[in-house]
TrEMBL record:
InterPro entries: 2Fe-2S-bd_N, FAD/NAD-bd_sf, FAD/NAD-binding_dom, Metab_Enz_Cyan_OpOx_G3PDH, SoxA_A3. The lineage of its organism: Archaea, Methanobacteriati, Methanobacteriota, Thermococci, Thermococcales. The keyword Oxidoreductase applies. The keyword Oxidoreductase applies. This is FAD-dependent oxidoreductase. Pfam families: Fer2_4, Pyr_redox_2, SO_alpha_A3. It comes from the Archaea. Residues 417-490 form the SoxA A3 domain. GO terms for molecular function: oxidoreductase activity. Residues 110-256, 259-351 form the FAD/NAD(P)-binding domain. Coiled coil: none annotated. Keywords: Oxidoreductase.
Length: 492
């Protein structure tokens, strides 16, 4: 086994790849960052500013493969003999490529459900067999965030088995895995949902749309928070539970929700320490130590940020939904039937952060509202009642030790935007996030603000004294994910 393997891998899949000229053991179909992690190599790419980066924090992972530059290393599935080199970000553009030579595939359905986590699966369980459904999921698996979990989940028990139970669909339900919805547009009686699977453009025409698009990991601000060996919670969960590889030998868990990660580490017997107030990560090409706000030094080889999740607001604002600030994060303003506006529903952790089972129930609730709209029998009040048992998770609003940080070492955004750069603009008196975006490029890059806009708002709120709820949050523009604009432009 490789140094950080937690499980035996299939020996018939064993291959050799070359990274920076050195041979490494890997397994066919494994992702590059996972194979390198298993062998203890964290540094995979270099930002335009020259910062060494791994694949599990944020920002893209461009690498050169067999001499071809600008391959997205995060998604690279390995084959025997591949020769991979580190590369700088430089001209790399992470974007969905669409082959315009291919004819567009079109589907007409009653309901398009975007996102196949517990909420999307709840919607489909409720309406499947009664209405025609397209279930659109950008990942290669069903179950969303719950698929990454190894420990039993309230209401569901074993997460994998629960998802498998929910994955047998009746006729009339079509599932599109590996398919990214790019937005939702009005088209008379219908909504148009353009989506892309590999390089194929697919257009869904749907009478109703459900945004079951979930939440994103919160990015925590501390010095060198982009170092190789710093993990976002979902990446840590994925390497452990999907790929059977440990994030490190001794791990520091930071953030407001450590137990979500520590129970998984306990399960595998991975040594860890919980550090509530990280200040700085140090090391040579990878995490070697973490220093907290009190000056304590922890010798660790990985840091997992377990700071919970916040709803992904981009799909909501792209279709004209408005937001308010509740429970410590921005959430969509919904009518009594969970709609942003007529025909567009939201369910799950896109609405608020709560247990997986509550998100599933909320999917069922939305499904029941939709059935009623189509004149079919449904009892939404059943689910409304059950949902009352679940309070949304309140996130404490972090208090950033702004003047205690070296702002140039804190990455607020994976595209090389530092906290220091944004703070300088805010301190000069500019507190309009739209203008801050233009001046600093915050929320203008790969993640389109999904990860970094919240921290930008937090910074403005803290410096200006304006409550988070009173800030004007910029709306997301289509397409939801980077794609060649000319493809989508003609369709609005
Ligand atoms: P929970 O948060 O409890 O797991 P949930 O179903 O509300 O429940 P997720 O599990 O995060 O939330 O599932 C949301 C799913 O939506 C994810 O699997 C994500 O890949 C998918 N998704 C998000 N945006 C898009 C998009 N634009 N196109 C296709 N799928 C998307």
């Amino acid at each position: 086994m490789r140094p950080l393997d937690l499980t035996e891998k299939d020996p018939s899949k064993k291959i050799t790849i070359y990274f920076e000229g050195r041979p490494y053991e890997a397994y066919e179909g494994e992702k590059l960052p996972v194979a390198m992690l298993a062998s203890g190599v964290y540094w995979l790419t270099t930002s335009t500013e020259g910062r060494h980066r791994g694949a599990f924090t944020f920002g893209p992972v461009p690498v050169t493969v067999n001499g071809v530059k600008n391959v997205d290393g995060r998604k690279l599935k390995l084959k025997n003999g591949l020769r991979i080199e580190r590369q700088r970000y430089d001209e790399f553009q992470e974007q969905v490529e669409i082959d315009e030579g291919k004819p567009v595939i079109r589907y007409v359905v009653d309901v398009a459900v975007i996102g196949a986590g517990p909420a999307g699966l709840g919607v489909v369980e409720e309406i499947g067999g009664k209405l025609t459904v397209a279930l659109i999921e950008e990942k290669g698996w069903l179950g969303g965030d719950m698929w990454l979990k190894g420990v039993d989940q309230e209401g569901f028990g074993n997460p994998r088995r629960a998802i498998e139970r929910l994955s047998s669909f009746p006729d009339g339900v079509r599932v599109f895995l590996g398919t990214t919805a790019l937005g939702v547009f009005d088209k008379g009686e219908y909504f148009l949902v353009p989506a892309v699977k590999e390089d194929q453009l697919i257009e869904f025409m749907a009478k109703r749309v459900v945004l079951a698009t979930g939440a994103v990991d919160s990015i925590m601000l501390f010095e060198n928070n982009d170092y190789p060996g710093v993990f976002r919670r979902s990446d840590a969960l994925e390497v452990i539970n999907v790929w059977g590889v440990a994030p490190g030998r001794k791990v520091a868990v930071v953030g407001a929700f450590p137990e979500e990660i520590t129970q998984e580490l306990d399960r595998w017997g991975i040594e860890y320490v919980v550090v509530p107030n990280p200040k700085r990560v140090e090391g040579n090409d990878r995490v070697e130590r973490l220093i907290d706000g009190n000056g304590n030094v922890y010798e660790v080889d990985a840091v997992i940020v377990a700071d919970g999740r916040i709803p992904d607001i981009n799909p909501v604002t792209q279709v004209g939904g408005r937001l308010h600030f509740r429970h410590g994060y921005y959430i969509p303003i919904l009518d009594a039937e969970h709609r942003i506006r007529k025909g567009i529903y939201v369910a799950g952790s896109a609405v608020s952060i709560k247990p997986h089972y509550a998100n599933f129930l909320e999917g069922k609730l939305v499904g029941a509202y939709i059935l009623r709209e189509f004149g079919l029998e449904a009892e939404p009040c059943l689910y409304e009642e059950k949902l009352k048992e679940y309070e949304p998770v309140a996130r404490p609003i972090p208090k950033l030790p702004l003047d205690g940080f070296n702002g140039e070492d804190v990455q607020i955004c994976g595209c090389g935007v530092t906290l220091g750069k944004v703070d300088e603009v805010v301190k000069s008196g500019i507190t309009d996030l739209q203008i801050i975006k233009r001046l600093t490029h915050l929320a203008m890059g790969f993640c389109q603000g999904r990860f970094c806009l919240f921290n930008g708002a937090l910074l403005v709120s803290q410096r200006s004294g304006t409550p988070m709820g009173e800030l004007d949050i910029p709306v997301a523009r289509p397409p939801l994910k980077n794609v060649k604009m000319k493809v989508v432009a003609g369709r609005e």
